[in-house]
Amino acid sequence: MSLYHEVLDPLKGRCAVASKALPAGSRVLQTFATSAVSSPSSCDSCFVSQVSLSRCTGCRIARYCSRRCQQLDWPQHRWECQAWRSIPAAHASPTLLLVTRLAFKLFRSSKITEEARNAVLTLCHHLHDHSEKKRQVFDDMTQLVLLLLSRYKASAKQQIPSFDELEIDLKMEILKLFGRVNCNAFSIANGVTNEALGIGLFPEGALFNHDCDPNSIVSFKGREMLVHVVKDVAAGQEITFSYVELLQSTQARRSELKESYFFDCECARCQAALKEEAGKVKDDWYLDGLVCTHKEGGVCGGVVVVEKSTGYTVGCAVCKLCGCERDGEEIDRYEKLLKSFEALDVDSEQRKWEAYQQRWKIMTQQLQLHPRNGRVAAMAREIGNFLCGATSSDLRRLALPFFVAELHAVEWLLPKTKLPSRGLLHFQMGKLMFEELESSPGTLSRVDQVDRLGSAANHLHESLST
């Protein structure tokens, strides 16, 4: 018996609904991608990310971590290798290559079942909902896909269709494929660092709808997608996961969902935020907020909410506790300074660390984002992961304070939802604390050692429970 079944909702469309009560931790889906493409930094077969990858000597685009992985991928890559060789690497975006692979598999290969083909072709493409500019991009990329397909290797029994023949037969189908990929493909990510490893189309996974307080999460093992529930789910209850970063304000989440997936989110979390009474503390204040710098009679402790006037220019920035206003021009100036450091292209570990330090200083000391601000959490996570992966042991020892800052920024939000990112954060903190104790046993007093050991154990316990 399947753990879930499909239901057609008059407002949402297709939904995945639990067929029976599911305890937290239950795996409800395990499925492989119809097609997937790795990012330039990961293996095209197993999707492992590593510094040293060997390029395919034929096309110079596909990359592999080992000879074994190259051999495993050859049954697929043998048909496309000569075609991929004809395009510059700069034009070989993962989306373009994914649509090309899908088009070949769906329309030119006999090694796909009718059921698997229909599972892709029945996905919504929302082609007419995309902007005219986006449709023009799809149209341009479709020409390149058709060109690549005309250069694919054919089997002995096949005749290679010309570009003109493919354009007549497949142009509209490929345009729709771009729409389907844009709305339904998943970013395949590293479960620890959240590093993008590639993209893939998982038709079974596309059945699950979005919620800003989801009851399930998605993870990946190479080309395999897994869905686990993170809350107890009752029979008949919809199973959902999040399509967007949850550490964003309601407006930011709803805007991204509307722009990328063409629906207005009406989940309980969004509705609660939109209906909150005036004067009541809102999650959104903190997710986008700044620290109040008014200190007459002591530190205010309030949160400054920024309202934009035009574009990205600050209209007003007022503390919700004391009513004092921060200088909008100063905020704009620091935001521009922050963007200038984000745009830097650094080529060494040490220079990257220096750039991270500058960005962190601007965020926390000059711009003074609130400690619960979603950008603080994201930046702390990025820096912490960078330091953990550094070759320098001196840099690796600096990671813990950034994970502490991330935990402070996220632990208050959706406290009852066992988010995997939060579990991994506790694991990283516990692991770093143990390593710190092992590497410098004589630097702490006995009492401090016991205290630190207890903290490390607590973090690891929290990680396991999550």
What does this structure look like?
With 466 residues, the protein is an alpha+beta fold. It has a domain at 34-186. The chain has helices at residues 67-84, 94-107, 114-121, 132-149, 163-184, 250-261, 268-275, 283-288, 328-342, 349-366, 374-388, 393-396, 400-410, 420-439, 446-465, and strands at residues 4-9, 13-18, 27-32, 35-38, 54-55, 63-64, 186-189, 196-201, 209-210, 216-221, 224-229, 240-241, 290-291, 303-308, 314-319. Strand 1 (4-9) and strand 2 form a beta hairpin. Helix 14 packs antiparallel against helix 15 (446-465). The radius of gyration is 25 Å and the shape is globular. The model has no long low-confidence stretch (mean pLDDT 91).
Tertiary shape = globular
Secondary-structure element order, as H and E? EEEEEEHHHHHEEEEEEHHHEEEHHHHHHH
Strand order of the largest sheet: 3-11-10
Mean pLDDT: 91
By secondary-structure content and strand pairing, the structural class works out as alpha+beta
- Total beta strand runs: 15
Brief overview, please?
With 466 residues, the protein is an alpha+beta fold. The protein is 45% helix and 14% strand. The strands form 6 sheets. A 3-stranded antiparallel beta sheet has the order 3-11-10, with no helix packed on it.
